[in-house]
Amino acid sequence: MDKILFSMPGNEQLAKSISNGINCSMGKFVFHHFPDEESYIKLESDVNGKEAIIVCTLDRPDNKFLPLYFLAEIIRDAGADKITLVTPYLAYMRQDKKFNPGECITSEHFANILSSFIDEVITVDPHLHRISSLDSIYSIPTKVINSTPFISKWIKENISNPILIGPDMESKQWVSRVAKDADAPYVVLVKSRLGDKNVKVSIPHIHKYIDKYTPVIVDDIISTAVTMIKTVEHLKEAGAKPPVCIGIHAVFSGDSFKELNASGVEKIITCNTIPHPTNSIDLSEVFIKLLQLHPVKI
Ligand code: R5P
What we know:
Strand order of the largest sheet: 2-1-5-6-7-8
Number of domains: 2
Bound molecules: ribose-5-phosphate
Structural class: alpha/beta
Distance between the termini: 10 Å
Oligomer: single chain
């Protein structure tokens, strides 16, 4: 099946890298906002009988989601055989439980809506905590890219004597894999989140590593950056070297990037799942591999 690739606004760089690596044409559409901020979308490519691949990362999802839905709908309407969504950051994965009566488990509802108009999702390390696999909430096929070999490679090439630090139990899944591939020791801390920006992180016991090792904090999402900042503060108190902070997904809400930078870090590094100046780990080759391996028909 012929492939045609569409980039939602803001995703041009990754879309270009992917299109350079797979045999596809570039899809064209007109998109703008009316003065009342409603979206206007007009398809300008022939998609009939093709697999349409839409690249749309979904950080800050509420404003991106409706345009994505409209684009998918006109593509479907125009006769595409399959719509694949490449969404390097999959939103609404953290609200996976009713913590208090009346709360909405948004992960499930978001998965239901997305599954209703997309045929397949490809993403990078979704935040799987209480949900063990995307298949338990998505009714369409999903493919998950594991970024950890790329993070390990970056660490091996750039840091001598790293000691990896996972700021909470969820991060153990990433930190342990990164540590194994990077031949480095790791510790995982215990975190309690009492509010959006109110986070307590246990003290890292890394005394035997203090002199010779460079701490590398690895987490999946950096959002308010409070988790990273608290960990950096403990490391500073323990007398460790300024740490390198690695996040898979550079959400960076509000002033968090500035605040993390000012907290005494050596460097901040992220994967290119959300465009950001810290994107130093490029995952496009895995997207290319997965899209090339796609079965012909769903
Ligand atoms: C939480 O469970 C995640 O793994 C991250 O630790 C969290 O999302 C980081 O959030 P923030 O940057 O707001 O502290």
